[in-house]
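User: Show me a protein chain along with its predicted structure.
Assistant: Here is one chain, sequence first, then structure tokens.
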Amino acid sequence: MTTIVTSTPSAPDHVSEPESLLRRLGHDTAYVLLGFPLGVIAFCVVITGVSAGVSTLVTVLGLPVLVGTVFAARGLAEVERARVAIVLRDPRVRVYYKRAAPGSGWWRRMFTPLSDIQSWLDVVHGIIRMPVSIAGFVIVVTWWAIALGGLTYALWDWSLPHTEDNYELPELLGFADTPSNRIGFYLVVGVFFAVTLPAVVRGSALVEAWLAKALLNGVASLRDQVAGLTEDRATARAQTAAAVSAEATALRRLERDIHDGPQQRLVRLSVDLGRAKQQIDADPQTAKATVDEVMVQAREALDELRTLSRGIAPPILTDRGLGSALAALAARATVAVELDIPDYGRLSPLVEQTAYFTVAEALTNVAKHSHATTCVVTVRLTGEVLTVTVTDDGVGGAQLAKGHGLAGLADRLQAAGGQLWVSSPPGGPTSVRAELPCPTAG
């Protein structure tokens, strides 16, 4: 008995709201203004610490002072990394500094921070950031002051002394010194500075942020890339080993199935044909009965070969896709199977084949070992991950130990970049869940 439940997958909701101009202006302004006191603090701490450490390096005190300065620079650098991530709208970079090996002596623990290149880049940033922070602070404060002052000049022009000896800027540029001329002139200046304010503040923030990113995140990003490549290489090696193991397991199973099934029937068929040849002259009736038996054995051998071929590459999977192939597979199951798979269209051939063999192996285990009466097969595509779950109401006890059928299935999934989980407590139920990357789903 097979129950098929289909549904239409809902489209993902991609809603993004761009950052508003005023919000970005506020972030950039706060970044630059706060950068000035932080830059002064970093410069004073680092310069004082390095000077004191170098000058007393001939004594025992110089080394601890340098180490303390390095750690102070690290702390200030971490604050700056958090600020840079907000301004550049990039993920915050996690920096992993050198650490002494466990059990190292005092001297090694003391020298390890000083041998880390990123620690010295933090120190360099603490020194050279101050002039950049001062320049950005002056530019941003000046632009804000002129923009606000010009736009609001009409509100406080009356409070300023205007005498013949006090030459106003409009008068120096050839305009008559009248309230309307002054207000109009400063209003134009205020509008100009207000219009250019977002670009100027953004530029000042970016210069300071790019300097920090180059010194504080450059080496860390390179290390992350190297670590990622190393992890990818290890994953590729593991997938290759899993593919070889899965292929070897499949070949051994195919060899065993052929030996136990069609090969034995073909051997018997050959023997019976030889016997029929000997009987055909002496006892034609007996020979005819023997030939009839041979024809039955030939049909049975052909059926077994077809079954084995479906296990290698089922034609329905290639022709009609995963949904139809799983429906046919569930129809041949010896227990009642409820199949829940939405219509996702055609997936990549590797994903369809791996998902099909996952369900086939799971249903085989259900039929052989679980003593189950019902089974539920669920397929879901979330983002770029295809999840296949097979749950039965059997006695439980399934495991991924070496030598079991699920171990070979786990190797097949790992070779395709996926993973397998099995939950099968004593008494059941058993749930086999497989996740497969599916980047080319259509």
